[in-house]
């Protein structure tokens, strides 16, 4: 079969908006236009192996054949490399150049199968179908998408800087230096509270004021109201005199004041414990994950609602029943990218299986959002979470472009 050769010209210009400035740059370098000739279905990378026009050596080195047997629609090489442009070898690979868009490798069975796979139409050349070359259009769309991605990365980077500043401020503000001092209420501070028990003979001492045991000095409980048993149940308690009533009022006031202060003290103590817990967390090299602490995000699929609470837990809910998919274990990204994966383990035990656990893969994005949740193995879950906290670099527009689009 006659050998076909491919000639083409590639000129590709790209138009990028970067930090509000439109930049032009040439994707493929400065040598334009360019013509490269090689057998059909061969990539530019593999071109050197097809340059000896007398003999061809299969790329796995297993056989030498006359070059005229390349693309002759008969499979000679075990690795299929003598038929890059026909469907003769079941394991062959066809390369489309797709100038203006992305090059592509196809299984050679798709050559001349009546379906247009390559946007440059090169996989359908026997005339059975007519394909339209839409590579330029696809290329434009792909590039627009890449520009969007780049802008998202750079916007994400800007947001991350805010998170870093916020995280640092919160960490500084929340440093716990000392526990709060114990409550110190002086009864004399209470209006009219100048009470001396010695002024009262035993019988006159108001019931509501005395306690049965001396208060421990370190015990901050206020005097408790003690009710003595009536000697005779039928006896009516006499009404207190005016002075006693005043004292009872003072004691009640002191008790109430203590109650309020005690509640305030306990609340502060709880806040300190919570802060200490937060401060002990690894919230990123630059505290960029600080803002995520205490927040939760949901993802709904057809069956479940997944809830992801960073640094706390992951759960799965169905018909009102919530199942734990794990509690915060730690960062599990690879070396150099530690903050790219979070591990949650010790969740609810799977029937006849392991405790449920979840791996959360983090990616750069301008919003904080769970983009997917799934169960690759029974009771082992994975989630993808987008967050600006992962946008740790400014992306150069050129870095997003395939500079190696083959000719
Ligand atoms: C529940 C869910 C599933 C899980 C099964 C295992 O239905 O938690 O995700 O696979 O239990 O029995």
Q: In words, what does this structure look like?
A:
There is one protein chain. The chain has 407 residues and is an alpha+beta fold. Helix content is 19%, strand content 20%. The protein has an eight-stranded mixed sheet. Strands 1-2 form a two-stranded antiparallel sheet. A two-stranded antiparallel ribbon has the order 3-4. β1 and β2 form a beta hairpin. The two termini are 24 Å apart. Alpha-D-mannopyranose is lined by residues 316, 323, 350-351, 375, 378-379. InterPro entries: Gtb1-like, LDL_receptor-like_sf, Man6P_isomerase_rcpt-bd_dom_sf, MRH_dom, PRKCSH, PRKCSH_N. It comes from Saccoglossus kowalevskii. Keywords: Disulfide bond, Endoplasmic reticulum, Signal. Residues 294-393 form the MRH domain. Residues 185-220 have a biased composition (Acidic residues).
């Amino acid at each position: 079969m006659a050998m076909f050769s491919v000639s083409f010209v590639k000129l590709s210009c790209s138009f990028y908006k970067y930090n509000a400035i439109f930049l032009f740059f040439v994707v493929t370098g400065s040598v334009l236009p360019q013509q490269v000739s090689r057998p059909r279905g061969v990539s530019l990378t593999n071109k050197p192996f097809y340059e000896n026009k007398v003999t061809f050596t299969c790329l796995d080195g297993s056989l030498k054949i006359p070059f005229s047997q390349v693309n002759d629609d008969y499979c000679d090489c075990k690795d299929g490399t003598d038929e890059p442009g026909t469907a003769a070898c079941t394991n062959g690979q066809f390369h489309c150049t797709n100038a203006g868009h992305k090059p592509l490798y196809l299984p050679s069975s798709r050559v001349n199968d009546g379906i247009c796979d390559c946007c440059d139409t090169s996989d359908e050349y026997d005339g059975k179908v007519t394909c339209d070359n839409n590579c330029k259009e696809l290329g434009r769309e792909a590039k627009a998408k890449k520009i969007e991605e780049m802008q998202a990365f750079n916007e994400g980077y800007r947001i991350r800087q805010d998170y870093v500043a916020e995280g640092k401020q919160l960490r500084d503000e929340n440093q716990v230096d000392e526990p709060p001092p114990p409550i110190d209420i002086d009864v004399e501070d209470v209006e009219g509270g100048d009470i001396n028990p010695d002024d009262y003979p035993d019988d006159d001492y108001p019931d509501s004021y005395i306690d049965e045991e001396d208060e421990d000095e370190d015990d901050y409980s206020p005097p408790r109201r003690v009710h003595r048993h009536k000697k005779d149940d039928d006896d009516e308690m006499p009404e207190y005199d005016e002075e006693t009533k005043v004292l009872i009022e003072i004691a009640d006031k002191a008790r109430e004041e203590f109650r309020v202060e005690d509640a305030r003290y306990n609340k502060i103590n709880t806040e300190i414990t919570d802060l200490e817990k937060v401060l002990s967390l690894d919230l990123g090299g630059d505290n960029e994950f600080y803002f995520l602490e205490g927040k939760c995000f949901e993802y709904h699929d057809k069956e479940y609602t997944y809830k992801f609470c960073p640094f706390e837990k992951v759960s799965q809910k169905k018909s009102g029943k919530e199942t734990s998919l794990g509690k915060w274990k730690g960062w599990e990204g690879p070396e150099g990218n530690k903050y790219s994966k979070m591990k949650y383990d010790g969740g609810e035990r799977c029937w006849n299986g392991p405790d449920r656990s979840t791996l959360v893969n983090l990616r750069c994005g301008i919003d904080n959002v769970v983009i997917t949740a799934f169960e690759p193995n029974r009771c082992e879950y994975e989630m993808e979470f987008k967050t600006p906290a992962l946008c740790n670099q400014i992306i150069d527009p050129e870095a997003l472009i395939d500079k190696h689009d083959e000719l």
